[in-house]
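hi!! sorry for the late reply, been swamped w classes. u asked for the two structures so here they r. pasted raw, havent cleaned anything up. first the sequence of the first protein and right below it the tokens
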Amino acid sequence: MGADHRTTDFVAPPGGVMTDEVGAVTGDLTLRTEVDDAGTVTQRVQYKDADEWYLPTGITPVLDQGGIDAVHERTLAQLSKGNA
């Protein structure tokens, strides 16, 4: 069946979005949420249209009854407001 995914472009809040690999990323970003066949959720951010993806620090996505759309929107809201 393959993985299901959602992507949304957004602008990083003041101070940027912290990532495990490179620290803060700023400016125009993209969030990608992916759920594999086993129900494992993976979320990454990138500079819009870049090749590299990074794990946002402190984000622990949980798939619930709202499905991939709900987990994607929760994380997008958290990253957009900062302190993530």
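now the second protein. again sequence first, tokens right under
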Amino acid sequence: MTNREQNIADALNRECDCSVTDLPALRKHIEGAMEPGQSIVESHPHLFSATPVFLQAIHVEQMRRVIESIEAISHLPTYQQAALAQAPSIARIDPRAAGVFMGFDFHITPDGPKLIEINTNAGGAFLNIAAQDSHRACCEAAGGCSGLRPGLAESEAEVISMFRREWNLARGDSDLRSIAIVDEKPRGQYLYPELQLAKRLFESHGIRTHIVDPSELEITAGTLRCGGMQVDLVYNRLTDFYFDAAANQILRLAFERDLAVITPHPRAHALFANKQNLVLLSDAAELSRFGVERSAIERLIQAIPPTREVKCGDEGWWQNRKGWFFKPRHGFGSRGAYRGDKLTRRVFAEVAKGEYLAQELTPASERHRTIGGNQAVFKVDVRCYVYAGKIQLMAARLYQGQTTNFRTAGGGFAPIYIIDDAELR
């Protein structure tokens, strides 16, 4: 990384006050997939930010290498044995499909990108794809930047290719004819507009699609069905990652009996998104035991903040809490997560019960922007949407407070611009 590259990225994130996203055009595009009378402005006023986030090209390359290293590790039998031992038995079923829309979330620090979390069924991909044709040119100062914007048509074609590949991995060369997008009470989900975008895209490629609650699924004559339609593939948006809930038993049976291709699936969560995996992936001794190459070990130890289990009754964490971020080991999103320096004794009593992990505190980078005539400072998360170890799409999330929330004026999903040193010379 050159000093010039670093200074330009930092300076633009502090000083660039441009708006690069045509929000009215984007909202109109999304509402075209929504039901008549629905307004994305009324229901989701802070879903998108017009503010770009600038990244150094070397940081993008570092994130790519970290993701590829974790993908390679996920195929090691020694790692699989350790990861699957921490998960329910259903995760031992190998459905052959890889798992769509992995989310690798990073904070960008002076020491490089830090991997904070890995998610299955990471939300926002279809929304950020929809935004790609709504980005305008930025200021002259950003003339040396390249945007991660391959274009709407190209990105949509890649998504369709990904879902068809999932189908072909599990079913061979037959045609994918039908998809059920499954979430708990989908109309009440905050990202329901995204599910509607996905439905429109699938149907534009001749794939019959329903958005349904798990209760609308049934098994008939050895097939998974919805509203009389045989379901070839389930695009799984549930946060019941192992189909434990009584309401999801039809999906559990369909997965166990291989009645439909379900993606992402329990095995993908167990190998990647189980938070306990970060304990393994941030431990050099464990990685060496798995047979990971030294270069990959060094890469992961640099990029993944040390993550440790909080054992039941361990009061020592109270004294050291300020340098750590505490996450429930079986939680998702930001629910139940706490910065150590914000912990009260009452909340720490819950943490000390042993159902938490502690991750070394890694503050998010910042993006400065004028909002309503006042200077506002936003925290920045960078999300990489990944399939089979390859980055398909990147987007930033701007927020204020402890966690991403889509409730801050000027915040939300934001486009990423890359400072490419080769273009600056």
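hope this helps!! also noticed smth abt the second:
The chain has a mean pLDDT of 91.
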